[in-house]
Specification:
With 171 residues, this protein is mainly α. The protein folds into two domains: 96 residues, DnaJ domain (Helix Hairpins), CATH 1.10.287.110; 65 residues, no CATH class. It has five helices and two strands. It has a two-stranded antiparallel sheet with strand order 1-2. Helix 2 packs antiparallel against helix 3.
Length: 171
Amino acid sequence: MVVDHYIVLGLPSGEEALKLSEEEIRKAYRLKALDLHPDKRPDDPHAHEKFRRLKTSYDVLKHEKTRKLFDDSLLRMKHEKQHKIDSKRRKMVSDLKKRKRSAFTPSDERLLRRFVEEVEKRVIVNLDCHLLDWTTGILGESLDWDLSSRNSTSSESTTNQSCTVEQHSRC
């Protein structure tokens, strides 16, 4: 695992780190060094190791060449990690699509299609009955509403489905 030297110094990492000046890096190092110095933390057995890590991070970032190499490797690793996540996401989506496709067998699709057709047919009949209500209310007369002339894919819809004002109570 690669250490992000900006984070060790308490600085922002990534694109924001590229904009930091040497002066900002030096100030961050001095503030952290005051905090982590082993003389200030005699009770902490890991103080010397933390301070050594801080010093190493500062040495990498204070020189322009080593900082550029570190920035390039850090950005490359972040892009590789993002690419790996994206490839996993694409695989997960494709697996999900395969599962959805395999969930319905051809017979299930036929049943679903018939169910949708039946629902559509009932909605049309219901709308026609409501339209009859509306026209009867406006005209005040009885109208015959013949649905047998409608084109439909099922043979059931070709049967005579007329709805008059008297029969409308069952619609």
